[in-house]
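Example record used in the benchmark description.
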Amino acid sequence: MPKGYMLSAHRRPADPEKRDAYAKLAGPALEAAGGKLIAAGGRVEARENGLAERTVLIEFESYEAAVAGYDSDLYQEALRALDGGADRDIRLFEGL
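Model output (structure tokens):
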């Protein structure tokens, strides 16, 4: 079965206070949903329409698990804590 992924590509730096509140909840929420952090931060080289800002990649056992993790009550609580403090492009997608 193909893996599922969540990609978070930031468009600008996040509000530090809201980011911290979000981070305290988001990691445990996605881990509880079976998510495994593959890459976060580090060097980014943007090409085409991308922006060289923070990028995060999380792997799940399936596409359905990625969608369920995003939609989970725990992750939605993390999004409420973020409260518009980040401008991100979030993509949930199926791997090969």
